[in-house]
Amino acid sequence: MGISTSTAALLCRARQRGARFDRTVTIGRMSLHVPLKDVDRLARSVGIVGLDGSRFTGDGFADDFIRLVLGASSVTAVDVVAYQGAQIVHDLNRPIDPSLHHAFDTVIDGGTLEHVFDVKQALANYMNLVKCGGDVFIITPANNLYGHGFYQFGAELFCRVFDASNGFAVQDLVLVESPFVSVSASRRQHLFQIDDPAMSGKRVHLVNEKPTLLFVHARRVSDEPPFRTPPFQSDYAAKWHGRPPHEIGSTGFSYLTGWQELRRTWKQRRSKSLRNRRAFRRLEL
Description:
Elements: E1 2-4, H1 5-16, E2 23-27, E3 31-33, H2 36-45, H3 63-68, E4 74-79, E5 88-89, E6 104-109, H4 119-129, E7 130-143, H5 155-161, E8 168-177, E9 190-193, H6 197-200, E10 212-220, H7 234-242, H8 258-271, E11 281-283
Parallel strand pairs: 1-3, 2-4, 2-6, 4-5, 6-7
Antiparallel strand pairs: 7-10, 8-9, 8-10, 9-11
């Protein structure tokens, strides 16, 4: 659980675009997996020249990065236990105390959501913690990290959760692909910008061979309470509202022929992978 060089660069980009980190709450005490020379480069990207590396405590946590590079005046951690020094001890499976609602400018989850059983409640807690105009950042497994936590997530979930009906708007969705299960271990990480699947009206499938994370940035735009109505997957909602029931039917099932399987395999490698530039656009930071 933590911030890698790629996700640190995405957080810096968010700051450049207006995100405020003044009062930041982190979900758990996040580690910082960024070499000091890259910290200095990232600091320059947000206008900080000559960053004093000695001001980093060397405890391995990301708090100093959030303060010195992202500009936070305070960094508070929420965790289920206090063994790493979390200031707020709380089980995210349960509602956060109302006294903490709207208490922070930014929430950063660097890899906790997939370990929490009650995902809906955890997301509602994140949404309630942040004030109107504030930001929620989530970094979580998307593909090929089976066994890492309870879940892996797709963009569709976050686009439907961080919707105007819940008082939010998605600002950024980025896939981060790494060669290793320890995703921060390699500098060879590739980033791909993705759009809300509702924009194309089609599901965005991904069949790839490398571990992939999803970076989500959402902004609170109103004080709507979370989940007064449950989210629905966009392609189903489009069908329900745009297609007469009599047009939906079954034509019978049969397996593909050998030739059809070869053709389908070739097509899948292009249309259901990161080679599909209409769905996944390479991002350089």
